[in-house]
Design goal:
Blueprint: H1 2-15, H2 32-39, E1 45-50, H3 52-64, E2 68-73, H4 87-100
Parallel strand pairs: 1-2
């Protein structure tokens, strides 16, 4: 999903003639690349998806260098479906949110 989201952002930037915006996607099971990125002052924004434990570390390190962090942590997102909602659309949305966007 991370790669797909990066592609969507890249397409939006391109469609709006924003061609000089640096956009990097790193999927790093070993965490070595992540550590380098979190500590690098040249990277003003870090977006992290993962555990609350690691998210706290990422947030502290990025904010200590006055960077910005977007964190998606824990994976416990609730969904409320109102009685006048389309159940078919709600089901598709719930499945996509639970499976399609997992880190």
């Amino acid at each position: 999903m991370t790669i797909a989201a990066t592609k969507v952002v890249a397409d939006v930037l391109k469609a709006n003639n924003i061609t000089s915006f640096p956009l990097t996607c790193a999927v790093d099971a070993s965490s070595e690349i992540g550590k380098l990125m979190v500590d690098d002052k040249r990277i003003p924004l870090i977006s992290f998806t993962g555990s609350c434990e690691v998210g706290k570390i990422v947030s502290e390190k990025v904010h200590s260098r006055f960077g910005n962090a977007l964190l998606e942590l824990g994976g416990n997102n609730a969904m409320i479906v109102m009685d006048d909602a389309s159940l078919e659309l709600a089901l598709k949305g719930a499945v996509f949110a639970a499976v399609g966007t997992c880190g």
